[in-house]
Amino acid sequence: xxxxxxxxxxxxxxxxxxxxxxxxxxxxxxxxxxxxxxxxxxxxxxxxxxxxxxxxxxxxxxxxxxxxxxxxxxxxxxxxxxxxxxxxxxxxxxxxxxxxxxxxxxxxxxxxxxxxxxxxxxxxxxxxxxxxxxxxxxxxxxxxxxxxxxxxxxxxxxxxxxxxxxxxxxxxxxxxxxxxxxxxxxxxxxxxxxxxxxxxxxxxxxxxxxxxxxxxxxxxxxxxxxxxxxxxxxxxxxxxxxxxxxxxxxxxxxxxxxxxxxxxxxxxxxxxxxxxxxxxxxxxxxxxxxxxxxxxxxxxxxxxxxxxxxxxxxxxxxxxxxxxxxxxxxxxxxxxxxxxxxxxxxxxxxxxxxxxxxxxxxxxxxxxxxxxxxxxxxxxxxxxxxxxxxxxxxxxxxxxxxxxxxxxxxxxxxxxxxxxxxxxxxxxxxxxxxxxxxxxxxxxxxxxxxxxxxxxxxxxxxxxxxxxxxxxxxxxxxxxxxxxxxxxxxxxxxxxxxxxxxxxxxxxxxxxxxxxxxxxxxxxxxxxxxxxxxxxxxxxxxxxxxxxxxxxxxxxxxxxxxxxxxxxxxxxxxxxxxxxxxxxxxxxxxxxx
Length: 593
Description:
Elements: H1 13-27, H2 29-84, H3 88-91, E1 98-100, H4 110-119, H5 122-138, H6 142-153, H7 160-169, H8 187-232, E2 236-237, H9 241-269, H10 273-290, H11 301-309, H12 317-343, H13 377-386, H14 389-402, H15 409-421, H16 426-435, H17 455-499, H18 508-523, H19 528-533, H20 537-554, H21 558-561, H22 575-592
Antiparallel strand pairs: 1-2
Helix pairs in contact: 4-8, 5-6, 5-8, 6-8, 7-8, 9-10, 9-12, 10-12, 13-17, 14-17, 16-17, 18-22, 20-22
């Protein structure tokens, strides 16, 4: 109607609604409201469909999870039942080649493993405990900031000073800072950011010291990692089934009857010489790989670390536990044998390996072959070549000449030696020194025009005149190293070939015959040639076989002549046993000759 109205003009709600609909119809708003209502209904319908689909997916996933859980539980029950049936003797495969195989390939580089070892060391954790409270003042996630700081501090490409400088310019490299600089976040957030910025000045010297400490210890951890890998290249041979069963029996006696019962069972067990030889062979291998106190009651923190680090990386926890128990049993038996040998030297027995895959020998070797070494032939040959007398003579001559050429002759000679050891031809190195001697270090004196008539100018002139002599010395040094390396390589190869020869053992009858010969010589009541002539032919053949093996391993008549260097062809673990049997071996060769 066009007249102004108020809510008081309507008698009831129905009249007001009729007036509103009429107003909307005349201005086109009614149709718009219907469209909006339809859109709202469509959206609600679609949301209901999505919710229904979501419930269906949740039910399907629940069913799949239940089925997967049943499958996993079934596999666990099977694995558990299999574990329950295993014992110490069956849990450790005795028909394999090794109890612990040699490890020569690694998933990470030496530098990376050394870095991780340092980051997990106790000394580094002490430094982290110092840095962490400061990080907590600055960053919202101090643990994440500490991990980021460790990654930067252990990066060899980042200098400690550069690290501190970069953190000062961009502290958010380690994570989000506490507080905020925005006005809308309030005064408390701005005060927290100000406190974090102030604490940053405390963090920078700690970060620099953090990185400096890592660099200072990097070489030590690198050497330790190389030593670890050298020890892991040594294997622990497997025991025969007979030896394994005997050890299990003796250990069961100890658990039931205590130490006294164990010693009684041990006294019966050591009558089997083959068992002693096998156990001592494994014990010596354990000492070579893990250290003398590993798997014993005397193991300290370092021994525990070696036991953990020198196990194969892919070893399952269950097998690791079984091997640890077995090695403790072997160590206990070997310690008891060691005490018996100290009380009675006649009980000394050399350890010997079992021929893997074929069970036990009828007679184990008297001296086992040495086939595994911590260093390769090339590495040992390089060390010996650098220590050769003629090489040292030529090096001293080069040092004398280098003092007239370079300001730091030790550094220059170190660079030249590194190139020679890496295999570069000495003539090429000498030519490079002649063309540009300054590339190997700062030259003595000065080449400035104003210094030519002064002492430093004359010193530079003398240095340049001595360069041809230095080049000649380099050629001589390279030739000396090449000849020494070739000779030492052939010598070490021959030594290791000889050390790979096993000294065969004697049968019980031959052992008794050798003891009688030794007693006759000691009492001087009989002649050796007469006693040797009365030997049984079979025993004489055994003696001859052992004598030939001795000549092949130590050299012709080296045992008879009493040469002192024969001990070098025996592994360190067997040298004590070798010294104990050396007199008997001499008598054996005398009887054969």
